[in-house]
Amino acid sequence: MIILDPGHGLYRSRGSWVPQRNPFVHGRDSRMEQVQWDGTPHSSYVIEDFITPYIAKYCAQRLDYYSLPWGSTRPFPGTDVGDSIGESGHPRWMEGALYFLGECAEGNPRGGDRVRDLVRRPLWASSRRPMIAISIHCDAADNPEASGTSVFYKSGSDKALANQIYGNISEVREYIGNRANPVRTPLSNWAWVLHMDPGIRCLLIECLFFTNYRDAKLLLDERSLEDIGKRIADGMYQSLVGGM
Ligand SMILES: [Zn+2]
Predict the structure, then answer these.
(1) 201-225 confidence digits (pLDDT tens)
(2) Of 37, 61, 147, 221, which is most buried by a Cβ count within 10 Å?
(3) What's the gap in Å between 138 CA and the centre of ligand 1?
(4) Residue 137 Cα, ligand 1 centroid: separation in angstroms?
């Protein structure tokens, strides 16, 4: 079993449903500009919440091809469950994992739904006892020049898997950015790592920067999301078959 976790998703904030990550659009000077979400499901906005389910969907399709069983913390677009309307009034694939997986007893209630969503994911993943649990994100930075993909691993024993996945992704020149250290350990306070059972191999992948103009164009192209998703799955397959 492999658990996929498409990052973020709509959550309840002071009575309204909003993405967890700020929307960006192509602005002046070939730069990305932060904007307010107007509530439309489909637009030219680059919103991390709505990109990660596509990457995970194609990753899962590839895992099916390898006959590797998987689960996901969020449903995918283009599926019966994912496209059905959730309690937000939007398709369920756009919502955070909390509303798909059910209530979470833990977490800081002062943080509201967003924190409960972040904590619910690793708790559920741990309960499935997966071989690998992988959270899929896109990156952001104040510096619009920051670009490319990074793979974070929890412990040294996961480094070979992280290198395998990064190696597959970096075969495409456009996915390589200017990160000095694209394969590295994460901050230990990340919920995905902090609340994961210690024995579970745990990765977090930041697929390109939605704050970078060049990367954002790729993130708005479903063919790139499909390609990245497949490359992530290939890395897991190669690692499991190779005994890494
Ligand atoms: Zn993220």
Answers:
(1) 999 999 999 999 999 999 999 999 9
(2) 147
(3) 6
(4) 4
